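Hey, resending since the last one bounced:
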Amino acid sequence: MKITNVELIPIYSTREMGRTCPSDSEKAISHHIIVRLHTDADITGLGEMSDVNFVPTPEAVNELAARLEPLLLGRNPLDLTALQVDLGQQEWEHQVLPGIDIALHDAIGKALDVPIYQLFGGKYRERIPFAYPLAPCQIEEDVEANLQRIEKLQDQGHPTIRYYFGADLALDERFLSELRQRWGDGVEINALDASGRFDVETAIDIIGRFAAFKPNLVESPVKGRQNAPIEDFIAVKQAVDVPISEHASEDHVAVRLAQHGAVDIFNLGVGYSGMTACQKVFGLAELFGIKTLLGSTVELSIGTAARAHVAAAMPNLDFPSYPSGPLVYYEQIVRDKVRYEEGHIIVPEGPGLGVEIDEEQLAAQRLW
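The C-alpha cells again:
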C-alpha cells in the first residue's frame, strides 16, 4: 500500500456560540482542512486539521500540500514511525501534524480492518464522559444565554460543563451562583478555565473564592499557561484546595511539569503532535502519578472520532474530557456524526475512524 495523493479540502462550519460573546446572535465560524490520503490499495485515510489558526487560502493550502507531498507520496502508511519521524523534523502550523497523523492511522485501521483503538491496545472503555465548553460572560445578556445553554444540555441528558472565566469576574460569579441555585449539583462543573489570565496572587485569591461553586479543577491558572515559571504553578498548587490543570500535549511541556510536580492534572491533546504522541504523554502521566483528561480544539466528527479512539484505549483517563464539536457545530460533513448519550461520547466502530464522508455536505461546506 502506497500513498498516491494528498488531498487537502478547506471547509467552514458554524458554531452555536455567538461570534463575539455567548449572547451574540451572529454565530462564530471555524475553518478546518479535511485530509484525504489516497493509496494504490483503494484505501483512503481520513484526517482533519481542526479549527485552524491560519487562513486557508488557495495559496496557503496548495503550499502546504507541496510541502507534505515529498514526505508522504510513495510511502506506506504502515511505516508509521518512520513517517512520524520525518514529519516531525519540520515546523508546521498548529493542527497540520495531527491532521496527517489521524489520516495515517485511519488508513492503517482500514488496511487491517480494525478500529483505530485496536492500534492503541484495544478498547478499555465503551463511553467517554465529556464536558461541554461555555464561553465567558462578557456582558449582562451572556449570563442568561449561558444558562439557556445549560438548560438545553440538561434536556439532552448532558450534565457536565467547562466554563472559561475571567473576562468579568462579577458576571462569572453571578452566572455560577445562578447555575447552582437552579440545578444544584445536577450540573457538574468539570473545569473553570482561566486561560492564563492571572498572576499568582490573583489566581490564588480567585480560586479560593470560586471553590464554593465546586469545580473539579481549575485550568491554566497563571499567565504564560504551560510556559509559565514552574514556581508560579507550585505556588498556586500549594495554596489552593482545588486541583489545577495545564495543557501538556507536547512531550517537552509534559516532562517539565511532571519533573517538578507542578500540576495535579494534564490536559492532553491529539491536536498538537498527533495520536501516538498523545498516547506517550498519557504514559508519562501514569508514571508520575498525574491525573489526566483529554482536551479539544473543537473538532468536527473526524477529529472527534480520532480523540474518542485514543481515549477509549487509555486506562488512566480521570476526568470528563472536552471533545464536543459534533454538538457545537451546526454542519457536519460525515454521514453519521459521532454520537453523544447521557453525558458520554460513544466510541465509533468500524475499520479505522468508523466515520465516512458525506460528499454532498462536504461540497456544500468547501471554501473554494
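The longest strand covers residues 3-18.

Sorry for the duplicate.
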